[in-house]
């Protein structure tokens, strides 16, 4: 007889980091680089694309390794092949712009396979009404970034969508790199006893974007760390070709990257929270917003997992490189709790660092 | 003292095929594959990207050849590398969907360099709220298309943009193909005396999309001709490796493709209007809409330019292939009027067939 309270929530319009894993629609989290993104690849794309994989004569060519790039062999030449789309807002942000990010992003995906990045394609989806001056600035930025990264932009495509659709500019870059013989870097190669390194201070790119996001802008002197990591990787390979894993912790941050590695290699990873290099402004901004820097995106950092004997020389070489000045050893690989990342807190206790479910910070790259 | 009539036209919201070449904003025509698209590449992208080209040690690797794909040499292996973004509306149309189109489009771009397409990347930009069932249907379609085309989808990326931005799904595919030694196919190789062939009936894809476009739908039994052309190209290469030019006349149709070739090769091209195979429903729909089939997009046809001695055997081989049943000789390359395409009309007169300026039919691929 009493009134029945019906709470009606329209989850389809949410864009917050909640576990909407049973929602039959795409939510922002599906693009967040966390658990929802992984679900989409595992349960939707891989089965759909698998019909051609099953006829695959060379099983080494596979989408299912889930690395930052595919590794291919064409007439004896080992290639890395990678693709990434960029939808960051705003288009220009402290320390960079969508064009710079689009070049660095794919250069880095190739570098994370130990490849020397060679060629990039550029696919533009432009919104009707975009000022040509903005497009020109972005294209200039891409030319500069490519030059600085030592890659060539060799082929391109442009589409235009109606005003009100798109966000000015979306860019896809795909890239081809050459993998030297003897280099076998992939997320499945972490072994118990291996040492986990980070190349520098974390959380910078995500917080730089956050600081200029509409409706959220706060006053922070944080510039994106966007940078091409192929030079640093080359320096590291000069120390030892036997690097087990390299990943750039972009969407989902260091936490999601380590979780992916732990899962792919079926190992546990233990990190030391106090060892994580977090810049003071990032820490302050994260506290303000209730975020954890370990989940915040980076665009110029890498996580490396190397055998224990090469950890110290590798760290030393990284620190002597301009992009590795603040490199640090942050943890170890363990045969305990496979698939799980744990952190030793500053209080000496341990906590599980789960994979991000959805989206902490939409549209960061 | 009288009223002054001020006609205020906001060109920035136009999406019609008018010459808005001095507009400082992106208009739909910049994505139309015609003169405005070419201007954008020539005057904006190439200069911006050139800063790295100038340090180019191998000048053969170049964006500036403007073919459907770049040709690269990596450790002695000749590769074709191509990228294409797909923004077609509606996502599902008679005879295909955006996924099928995205696979065929890049397969065909590689095939137009004489390459054997091997690997494709897939970059998705999804709109928040997209039903997963739709995405799943599109992914299935891509898997099938890749299987049928003999290529592997080896690496991918997914981004999600806010509801109201995007149009459900945008897809970028990039691809790598292997160019056999002895094959030199590019738009600069048309020579006076060469013969121009078309592999089948024209205008089908564009009119299929048009027939289901919101606010325009008309009743026509036209299905898109989207198809992978690599098999047909292989059959043609078996007749002779000395094919001079191959192009798939997508955006801008046969007219724009021939104009690009005439300009790139610095030759004239004369086509015979009566020889163009135009299906009756396409002709009827074009008459209704005041369009010319020669400007309408195709997604499963190719234009071939071959030396005169191989024209007949080539035509015969094309006609024996399922995708070349209606192949025809449609014209010749001339040393007259370089850079210009002319048509002999049914009345025996000649007319110039200019390049499309902007956009005849937005969002067809």
Question: Which key terms come to mind for this protein?
Answer:
five-stranded mixed β-sheet, Phosphoribosyl-aminoimidazole Synthetase, Chain A, domain 2, alpha+beta, seven-stranded mixed β-sheet, 365 residues, 2 domains, 60s Ribosomal Protein L30, Chain: A, homodimer, disordered N terminus
* Interface with most residues: A-B, 92 and 92 residues
- Sequence of strands across the biggest β-sheet of chain A: 9-11-8-12-10-13-14
Q: Into how many domains do the coordinates of chain A divide?
A: 2
Low-confidence stretches of chain A: 1-20, 53-65
CATH superfamily of the largest domain in chain A: PurM-like C-terminal domain
Structural class of chain A: alpha+beta
Enumerate how many helices of chain A there are, as a single number: 8
Main sheet properties of chain A: 7 strands, mixed
Give the mean pLDDT of chain A.
87
In a nutshell, what does this entry contain?
The structure is a homodimer of 365-residue chains. By secondary structure, chain A is of the alpha+beta class.
Descriptive overview:
2 copies of one chain form a homodimer. Chain A is globular, with a radius of gyration of 21 Å. Chain A is built from 8 helices and 14 strands. In chain A, 28% of the residues lie in helices and 22% in strands. Chain A has 365 residues and is an alpha+beta fold. At the A-B interface, helix 1, strand 1, strand 2, strand 5 and helix 3 of A face helix 1, strand 1, strand 2, strand 5 and helix 3 of B.
């Amino acid at each position: 007889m009493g009134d029945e309270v019906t709470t009606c929530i329209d989850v389809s319009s949410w864009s917050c980091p909640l576990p909407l894993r049973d929602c039959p629609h795409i939510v922002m989290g599906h693009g967040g680089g966390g658990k929802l993104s992984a679900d989409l690849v595992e349960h939707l794309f891989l089965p759909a694309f698998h019909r051609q994989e099953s006829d695959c004569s060379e099983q080494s060519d596979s989408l299912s390794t889930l690395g930052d790039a595919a590794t291919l062999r064409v007439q004896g030449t080992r290639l890395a092949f990678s693709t990434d789309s960029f939808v960051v807002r705003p288009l220009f942000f402290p320390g960079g712009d969508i064009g710079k990010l689009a070049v660095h992003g794919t250069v880095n995906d190739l570098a994370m396979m130990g490849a020397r990045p060679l060629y990039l394609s550029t696919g533009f989806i432009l919104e009707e009404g975009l000022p040509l001056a903005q497009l020109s600035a972005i294209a200039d930025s891409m030319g500069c970034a490519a030059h600085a990264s030592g890659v060539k932009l060799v082929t391109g495509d442009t589409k235009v969508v109606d005003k009100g659709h798109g966000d000015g500019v979306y860019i896809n870059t795909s890239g081809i790199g050459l993998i030297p013989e003897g280099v076998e870097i992939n997320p499945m190669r972490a072994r118990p006893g291996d040492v986990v390194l980070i190349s520098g201070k974390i959380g910078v790119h995500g917080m730089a974007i956050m600081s200029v996001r509409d409706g959220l802008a706060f006053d922070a002197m944080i510039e994106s760390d966007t940078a091409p990591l192929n030079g640093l990787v080359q320096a590291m390979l000069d120390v030892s070709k036997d690097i087990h894993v390299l990943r750039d912790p972009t969407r989902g941050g260091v936490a999601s990257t380590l979780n992916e590695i732990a899962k792919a290699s079926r190992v546990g990873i233990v990190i030391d929270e106090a060892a994580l290099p977090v810049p003071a402004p990032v820490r302050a901004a994260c506290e303000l917003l209730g975020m954890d820097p370990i989940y915040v995106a980076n665009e110029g950092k890498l996580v490396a997992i190397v055998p224990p004997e090469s950890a110290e020389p590798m760290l030393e070489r990284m620190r002597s490189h301009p992009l590795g000045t603040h490199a640090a050893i942050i943890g170890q690989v363990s045969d305990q709790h496979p698939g799980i990342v744990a952190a030793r807190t500053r209080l000496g206790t341990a906590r599980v660092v789960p994979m991000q479910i959805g989206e902490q910070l939409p549209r960061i790259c």
